[in-house]
């Protein structure tokens, strides 16, 4: 690790959250701030990339000043920023600011993979998992199973061939007339649904393999909604059937991945990992098969600066340093990290 590089500033701007945090190698997470753009994009029913980029420009430096003031430091010992994947304009804001601050302060910088940040987020908890483990990364943009043997050593086991689980949640929520962002709203509506009224398919669970496919569930939900007409109660029943199908599918695939790899630990991260029904099902599955399952706290399931600060700290500790180039990668395979 770079001499004296104890406190790392993390910057997250991959989509519509502006996250800033400071991770200390001795004290843990010592400061964090998060600004969400949900209200800005809600009127459009989804994230508008140009608006997201402009809002990051407005919010980022004031948040950096706040976390530095909180810890009473003029500058950190290193800077980590999300370099990809994500929206190119949003990424470039964080990468430009992060690399420039590091240059001005004369400290090392590192570009962090957004998904590695999510994958390592459970390490911020007191009860952190040891390596190796199977990881389920499940969010609006990604659904994948990964065999993790150490930081940077990731083998892809399976991924979604179309919509990610979170994307399917949001699209189905829109069909149900729920406001953006729809995943949490759908889960809330599902609590009032009858689990016995409809049964949706569990896609790709009747064949070998660890890949996913969720776009068909959206179509199934649309056809079901059209069949029930103006049945107000039916909306909750459809939401419950959809959520059960996604949760069951994810649980079945996690069990297969654990059996295939022989791992006894499962890490679940990403925005959808905050879903309560998913957590209950995975914990039940883990208990039944003598497996430990780890989740980040809900605040670290969605995009945040803390996970980037921690991932950057681990990378800097391993001796990695970014050169004087600002790199943003809208597409960046996780398996390419080493």
Query: What do we call the CATH homologous superfamily of the largest domain?
Result: ATPase, nucleotide binding domain
In DSSP terms, counting alpha (H) and pi (I) runs of 4 or more, how many helices? 10
CATH class of the largest domain: Alpha Beta
Number of domains: 2
Subunit organisation of the chains: single chain
Strand content: 15-25%
Percent helix range: 40-55%
What is the CATH architecture annotation of the largest domain?
Answer: 2-Layer Sandwich
Word description of this protein:
It comes from Acidihalobacter prosperus. It catalyses: L-threonylcarbamoyladenylate + adenosine(37) in tRNA = N(6)-L-threonylcarbamoyladenosine(37) in tRNA + AMP + H(+). This is tRNA N6-adenosine threonylcarbamoyltransferase. Its EC number is 2.3.1.234. Its cofactor is Fe(2+). There is one protein chain. By secondary structure, the chain is of the alpha/beta class. It has two domains: 7-121 and 300-336, ATPase, nucleotide binding domain (Nucleotidyltransferase, domain 5), CATH 3.30.420; 131-295, Nucleotidyltransferase, domain 5, CATH 3.30.420. 42% of the residues lie in helices and 19% in strands. The chain contains ten helices and ten strands. The protein has helices at residues 38-42, 49-71, 88-105, 114-120, 165-175, 182-190, 215-228, 232-261, 276-288, 305-317; strands spanning 7-12, 17-24, 28-36, 78-84, 109-113, 133-138, 143-150, 153-159, 265-269, 292-294. Strands 3-2-1-4-5 form a five-stranded mixed sheet, with helices on both faces. A hairpin with a 4-residue loop joins strand 6 (133-138) and strand 7 (143-150). Helix 5 (165-175) crosses helix 6 (182-190), helix 5 (165-175) packs antiparallel against helix 8 (232-261) and helix 8 (232-261) packs parallel to helix 9. It is globular and about 65 Å long.
